[in-house]
Amino acid sequence: MPILEIENLNCFYGNVQVLWDVSLKVEKSEIVALLGANGAGKSTLLNTIVGLVPPKSGSIRFMGEDIVNLSGSEIIERGISYLPEGGRLFPDMTIRENLELGAYPMKYWKSRKATLDMVFDMFPILKERQKQLARTLSGGEKQMLAMGRGLMSNPSLCLLDELSYGLSPLMASEVFDIVKKLREQGITVLLVEQNVRQTLEIADRAYVLENGRICLEGECCELIENDFIKTAYMGM
Amino acid sequence: MNTNISRGRLNAKKIAPPGLSLLALILLSLLPIFVTDYTIIKINSIISFVIIAVSWSIFSGPTGYISLSTAAFYGLGMYASAILGNHLPLPLVMVISGIASFIIALIIGVITLRLRGVYFTIFTFGLVELLRNLILWLEIKFSGTRGRFVPSVDFQQVFYCILGTLAIILLISYLIKRSRFGLALIGIGESEDAAAHIGINTTLVKVLGFSISSFAVGAVGAAMATRTNYIDPGIAFNMLMSFMPVLMAIFGGMSTIPGPIIGAAVFAYLEELLITKVPEYFMIIFGAIMIIAILFLPNGLTGIAGKLFKRRKGAGKNANT
What are the tens digits of pLDDT across the range B162-219? Predict the structure, then answer.
């Protein structure tokens, strides 16, 4: 059974249709990438999964259960964690407070100390700076904090939106390494990216979204040779 | 690296640990033995402003949702006192008034707190006018009068009732500040979208926060009404009561617990002093002080204290990090 299964999803902002019959599957412990240009509907799709944008029709099943009508907090309690673009941190709160808020759902709040230790193990820099305000971190550190906060709710599925956005190439590689580490810990990842080459190198499968429709899907090792991908996204 | 202590909220723990406030409350409770009756009456009014300012900053401090509804709940409390005061003892009237305020705030919260930012402020501003006119209409229609007499209560009893309320609201404020709920309120103030993304039910948290910050205002309104013999809707729903806690919290510093306490105490004392010494220039001086405070004290009086504290401790902190 796929951990996440989306079928014929249609989404509107007012009268404008943004997603057209989108269907995708994410199997357990996979890294699945969602590629596409600006405005293709990638972020909308993630927002729909976590209940922030209600779909017009279609189904979203997480671990076999329909989650379309659940509220955002209920969806997170079930084990989906969403890292929005740019991290969306709480800039004037300390790193520790940011992380603790990641464990906000009651279920995870009680075990937050243990989870915190796990996150600190993964990102030692955050432990060092835990009393610093989030806005004093560098871009890469902010991204790590955002990922750390996402992990505080013990997710089985992580939705990552534009992780490498605005990072130096070095920092971006580091962040991609962390995505691989997530998989080692048994966390499934759905990754939205514009950095197509690096994404295809670490992901298992990918979907390409264009104008709100899935126009291409397949194994990453095949897609990397695909002519359409090469011309449209890698400039070759 | 001194950014880690740049925010007042972190200094709060150092400036006013809960033990210190407990000591202050005990000392205050012994006050009637030592001072004149007139002083007690003045202190009643100062403490009531402290309660109102602390209440206000429980919700509006961390979230940044500026509420101008204080006068509404204060006025409701006054009416509770006028209606129930002849039949029930003051503490009971205060409890009833507090619960009523909580419930009304809950209802208002559910209706309005899906609104963000300035729309919420405008609504709360309108709420006071709405209640004032509604009660005026009800009075004329059903009781055939404009105003009501408020049964007076011994001011020492009022003093202890208000002091009890102060203890309760300080305890609540302190507990919230250290809790998951308090963290969520700050998170909403920092970024409401991010708060929603990590699974905080923002509407629920806001509504509860607003209600908690309203009940003590109703209770204090009931207690303070006993000092004025007569109320009518114009007296009870006085817009000034809505602006006072905002100004006091800004003056003292919003993001700490001691901030609104100090702000309200200094403000209320200053008001008494100026109004007796220079009644003609009172508002001018008051306004000038406010403008200076907003321009030059972005974190209020406690902000200055925090800065001084940081300067003294600064060297040691730098060596550590």
Answer: 999 999 999 999 999 889 999 999 999 999 888 988 888 889 999 999 999 999 999 9
Q: With an 8 Å Cβ cutoff, are B198 and A93 in contact?
A: no
Q: Where are the domains of chain B?
A: 18-250
Q: What is the pTM of this model?
A: 0.84
Q: Pairing between strand A188-193 and A157-161?
A: parallel
Tokens of B108: 């208002």
- The verdict on residue A25 lying in a domain is yes
d(CA A31, CA A40): 20
Contact criterion met (CB below 8 Å) for B67 and B124: yes
Q: Are A145 and A50 part of one and the same domain?
A: no
Amino acid at B262: I
Domain limits at A184? Answer: 4-79+155-233
A148 and A168 share a domain? no
Q: Do A102 and B198 touch (CB under 8 A)?
A: yes
Is the Cβ pair A94, B197 closer than 8 Å? no
The residue with tokens 């402290």 is B50
Per DSSP bridges, beta strands A157-161 and A80-83 are parallel
Contact B232, B44 (CB under 8 A): no
* Two tokens, residue B88: 């029930």
CB pairs under 8 A between A and B: 74
B197 half-sphere exposure, CB direction, 13 A CA radius: 27
E strand or H helix at A214: strand A213-219
